[in-house]
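Researcher: I'd like a structural prediction for the single chain below. Treat it as a standalone chain; there are no partners to consider.
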Amino acid sequence: MRKVFLVVAILLIVDMALQFYFAALGVFAPGSTNEEQFALHTANGRIVLPVLCLLVIAAAALARAGGRTIGLSVAPLVLVVFQTILFILGGLTGTTEEAPTVAGSIVLGFHALVGLSAFMVAYMLVQRARRLVATGSAMPVGDSEPKPVTTATNG
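Model: Treating it as a single chain, here is the predicted structure.
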């Protein structure tokens, strides 16, 4: 199951890289409407990415990757869902495709940053999954248990 976790985590980060490519393709595609340009980006973000995020959570849990890693595996799904919330918030500012507002543009500008954050978390999950396969622990050496707090007393 550890290898399955690794494979699914790799698939997630590859799909996130594709998601950035689909966004660039949407921006730079010649001669089509805005909605047509972003069809791949939209479909991937609404269908494939959430499914892969759920698979990563399940694989981490079944691989017994540890509480911190399983918790971290939930973050990409939360960030992907937050992407949709950003568009709802952008709409609440009165922005539309035909008439964007400054406030809406600021809110929607975070779409790329949240996507980058999700990619970074996916990268961390790949690293933890690789470590889990190699060593049996997803955590770096010395990070597996919290360190006790010690206090010094003056004599």
